[in-house]
Amino acid sequence: MSELEKPKIGTYKHHLLVCTGPRCTPNDESDALFDRLGDVLKAAGLTTGEARVKRTRTGCFAACQGGPVMCIQPDGVWYYNVTPANLQRIVTEHLLGGAAVEELVFHRGPSVAD
Fold first, then answer.
1. What does the pLDDT read at residue 75?
2. Which residues of the chain have pLDDT under 50?
3. Torsional class of 45: left (φ above 0), alpha (ψ -120 to 50), beta (otherwise)
4. What are 70's strand-pairing partners?
5. Mapped to the 3 state alphabet, what secondary structure does 32-97 carry?
6. How far apart are CA 5 and CA 15, in angstroms?
7. Percent of the chain scoring above 90 in pLDDT
8. Which Pfam families does the annotation name (predicted)?
9. Which DSSP state fits 14?
């Protein structure tokens, strides 16, 4: 019996989870947001090095209102209404500046600092 090879993932500072479940946005805005996120992160210099941000498309978060919905780990910050303009604010203010965009936060879970 052969052994499974252990997976490898590059180092990253933040992990963005974007809900692409079918109920929180009516017209596939979440998929478009996820696709746009790659370009926004690249433009902000967040796709390589120590500040690298990993992004993952997820199924339903069971927070089926106010989407698109995104969670930033390890900060434990959950955002709603992540429009293209709000996405840019989240990248600039939270990921680059270190301060959550409070008016878009709908939940805080455990973080590394807890």
1. 96
2. none
3. left
4. 18, 79
5. HHHHHHHHHHHHCCCCCCCCCEEEEEECCCCCCCCCCCEEEECCCEEECCCCHHHHHHHHHHHHHC
6. 23
7. 71
8. 2Fe-2S_thioredx
9. E
